[in-house]
Specification:
Blueprint lengths: L1 E7 L2 E7 L4 E6 L9 H12 L3 E6 L11 H22 L4 E7 L3 H6 L11 E5 L6 H8 L4 E7 L7 H9 L3 E5 L13 H20 L1
Parallel strand pairs: 3-4, 3-5, 5-6, 6-7, 7-8
Antiparallel strand pairs: 1-2, 2-4
Helix pairs in contact: 1-6
GO molecular function, one term: hydrolase activity
Protein name: Alpha/beta hydrolase
Organism: Jeotgalibacillus salarius
């Protein structure tokens, strides 16, 4: 297994590859990086299943997040697209998975789901920003296999939206007491660890389908 830290244009990424025919591109949240539990154990799960991993290391100033939605999407895709091009040009992957958390669900829902190139890709959206209309619509009108996991205490949680998404065939799962990090409380170690395990089992079942 090789771990490469490369630069595509100005965007850094980590590529963990072992000759698999499947790759999972990961997109972090604004402050939820790849060393955080959801990504750390998602990475471990992918490696357990012999799936290569690409973690995109973009970083934005706070003012970028305040831009109009179309500008934000464009800014993110300017970082994501070079990584996709380099990795997919250099490796003959037959299957693609996208996994994003929070901010990282924007490129998935608002761009990648609309591309014919990724028509067969599986999409994993952890705590998606459902209050942003382009994210919700991107998910709702996509025919991809999607797994959505969100906390009941997440500010982006909306039961009516989740029912609508569920009826469209998307796998929707709610961590009842989960916040935007899918932790179940400030000092609820046991509950948060159980929630983390539950999420990983959901991801594993989704990948096995």
């Amino acid at each position: 297994m090789n771990v490469n830290k490369n630069v595509a244009d100005t965007t850094k990424y980590t590529h963990i590859h072992s000759g698999s025919d499947t790759v999972c591109f990961m997109f972090s949240g604004a402050g939820y990086t790849y060393d955080k539990p959801l990504f750390y154990y998602s990475t471990m799960l992918m490696l357990e299943k012999k799936i290569d991993i690409v973690q995109v290391h973009y970083s934005f100033k706070e003012d970028v997040l305040k831009k109009p939605m179309d500008e934000l999407i464009g800014t993110m895709m300017n970082d994501v697209n070079p990584v996709l091009s380099v990795v997919l040009d250099q490796h003959d992957y037959q299957h693609v998975i996208f996994l994003g958390k929070s901010l990282g669900t924007i490129p998935i829902a608002c761009d990648l789901m609309q591309r014919e190139l990724f028509a067969d890709a599986k999409m994993i959206l952890l705590t998606p920003l459902l209050k942003l209309e382009p994210v919700l619509e991107g998910m709702l009108y996509s025919e991809h296999e999607q797994l959505l996991v969100i906390g009941g205490k997440d500010p982006h949680y909306n039961n009516e939206q989740l029912l609508t998404l569920g009826r469209s065939g998307i796998h929707t799962s709610i961590i009842p007491e989960g916040n935007h990090s899918l932790d179940t409380g400030l000092y609820d170690t046991k509950g948060s660890l159980k929630a983390l395990m539950d999420v990983m089992m959901m991801v594993k079942r989704f990948l096995d389908e």
